[in-house]
Amino acid sequence: MTAPSCPIPKLNFDIITLGHGSGGVLMHELLNKTVLELFRNDLLDQQHDGASFELSGQTAFSTDSYVVSPIFFPGGNIGDLAVNGTVNDLAMCGARAKYLSLAFILEEGLPINDFWTILLSIKNAAEKAGVQIVTGDTKVVEKGKGDGVFINTSGIGTVHPKARIHHRYVQPGDAVILSGPIASHGIAVMSQRQGLQFETSIVTDSAPLAEPVMALLDRFGEGIRFLRDPTRGGLATTLNELALASGLGIEIQQSAIPIDEQVEGACEMLGLDPLYVANEGAFITVVDQNIAEDALALLKNIGQKQSSTIHHPPSIIGTITPDHPGKVILNSRIGGKRVVNLLPGEQLPRIC
Amino acid sequence: MTAPSCPIPKLNFDIITLGHGSGGVLMHELLNKTVLELFRNDLLDQQHDGASFELSGQTAFSTDSYVVSPIFFPGGNIGDLAVNGTVNDLAMCGARAKYLSLAFILEEGLPINDFWTILLSIKNAAEKAGVQIVTGDTKVVEKGKGDGVFINTSGIGTVHPKARIHHRYVQPGDAVILSGPIASHGIAVMSQRQGLQFETSIVTDSAPLAEPVMALLDRFGEGIRFLRDPTRGGLATTLNELALASGLGIEIQQSAIPIDEQVEGACEMLGLDPLYVANEGAFITVVDQNIAEDALALLKNIGQKQSSTIHHPPSIIGTITPDHPGKVILNSRIGGKRVVNLLPGEQLPRIC
Lengths: 352, 352
What we know:
The structure is a homodimer.
Chain A lengths: L24 H9 L1 H4 L3 H4 L5 E16 L5 E2 L2 E2 H15 L2 E13 L4 H18 L2 E10 L7 E11 L15 E4 L5 H7 L19 H11 L3 E5 L5 H13 L2 E5 L7 H10 L13 E4 L4 H13 L10 E7 L6 E4 L5 E4 L12
Parallel strand pairs in A: 4-5, 9-12
Antiparallel strand pairs in A: 1-6, 2-3, 4-6, 7-10, 7-11, 8-10, 9-11, 12-13
Helix pairs in contact in A: 4-5, 7-10
């Protein structure tokens, strides 16, 4: 758990009950002493049915629900995941997140201690990402009709004025850059699954990605053609989606894809292809081939800063090609070639 | 069910499975043939991690998760409820909803037929409310870890230029207007609860409320001091929240509160106080006493139009007073006075 320590407020209950979703006295006590106190800001303090603020220019809007199981895993929990995930969806639109909504579906019986830990992680992640939580909602469902905590965050962000991010701008010859090593989030969560626990020091890569994305856009503008974070379904799914949407082919080098040795070992042990395992702190960007080396250098620079939230090393993992349109081809370490398909079914349910 | 009829698309499955939440082939087939086809618009078609659009001026942002049980009830289902609920939260900020996000948490085993019916209701409700669904998310949880369907909608709207809506503008002497009869949503849902079914023609009042709110703001501007829709916890909770926040008292006349005879009968039968029963198509507004009669007349006019979505009759139900600050006092039909408190616990769980 990465939450900062902070004493839990004095409450007249130690688990969540249906009454906490009623709109009545219990719900007021819970929210006033936890959420509203912790995330205090002028917009949230309006305590309206929504938040109002002045906005102008190109705006990005995104939503995600988080159902990760278990809710606590090495390096994080559902709370910081829910902040970083939506902040990153906005970053992939070329936008810096400004405002987040925060909606909980709590299961009756959830320990208040767990709820508090999650709230602290949310606060911490929101501060790191420079985003304000301005409106929210809390519902409670009966025991057995939920699973501890589900969170939805929706976000509003300001699009970088130089951003021209779309699969239609992707061209043959463009380079595919991956910002950092893959598969650690999925493996960190799997390592805590009931019946599957294994000893490892692998932690989630969950991190906000706006900083490197804004730096790329500042410097290279339209040279940055496409951005996407390979979460559910992993790198393979994201690349397939791009190939299908753009009608172009993608060729990648297995040897160029960064992966932590321990993560690779765990994937082997579990029989998982790391290309399909979820990430929460990495992104791919497709860039004009003429700026590829400079863009890589910029990401390396950022990744090496002490204050950096991103993981390194970044790597140029492949190129866009007019051949085999709609398909992703992997050149393996041992010299073979294979098609990397969309996952036909489900590999790792509830990973985010 | 209020959904328009429309043939269900041909799919290779008839229930939701975990694979539909994987990011892989199954999820693409489900979303492409249902959600993306049904809600087709330029922003959604971007198929980005979020939607981007130009926005300017005072903007309202709101979120709500919907966990109503059962998901189908007389007059509606969780789908139209999720659209109207968030559209109305924005209306209560004095804003007209423009863009909605739509996030599902589906339980494994949900019949595709049910999912399709809900999608059609969402489409229908969004069209009625004049709002576009521009971004979304779909997660699937194992059987027994959810309850059919949970929906989160978040919304962005443009605040009316004349809107000055806040409890701090509420003054002694102001009139409290209720837009229509209370308690029918809660009773309609209760009538379908397992072990509690009863025969009734009561239907939910779920409806979009932006039209009457915009008309009030157009005409009376700052004369409209406060707006709130009494959903969870009902009219009693909303009035108590206003009394507590403003530090003023509220006096209401029981005889002036509109309620359908059948709804009142059902409340008596179930031992429920209709003041605490949820509404989804009514709002209260606190207005300058000098415009109260005109505002009432305007609401009456709108309610009587054939195309109107709101229910009538509206009524002036009370006044703001400097006496008994923070308290709501009811003058009963039989001449008594009683304090109307915040609900101490839970009356009707999962009503929205």
